[in-house]
Structure prediction request, 78 residues.
Amino acid sequence: MVRKITCCPHCGSEEGFFTRTDYIGVPYQHGYNGEELDNGEMYDRALEYHTRRYAYCISCERTIGTARQMMKQLGNER
Ligand SMILES: [Zn+2]
Prediction:
């Protein structure tokens, strides 16, 4: 059993963590007048994305663990 991570081991913050993700093929929509169109759902339409290897603390941005380990802990490993 993997020990559950409930706070940042570096600064003790319980605020949360983030992972870095590369989205590929995200459509960015422009109008002909040069204005940006509504891109609110742009990430839903990405062709694919890659989650990078590590999870980081929101507060101090130091590495907490692997992204896979954190997703496993949250119960939504893909
Ligand atoms: Zn931290």
In short: The helical segments are 67-74. The longest strand covers residues 48-57. The CA atoms of residues 9 and 19 lie 16 Å apart.
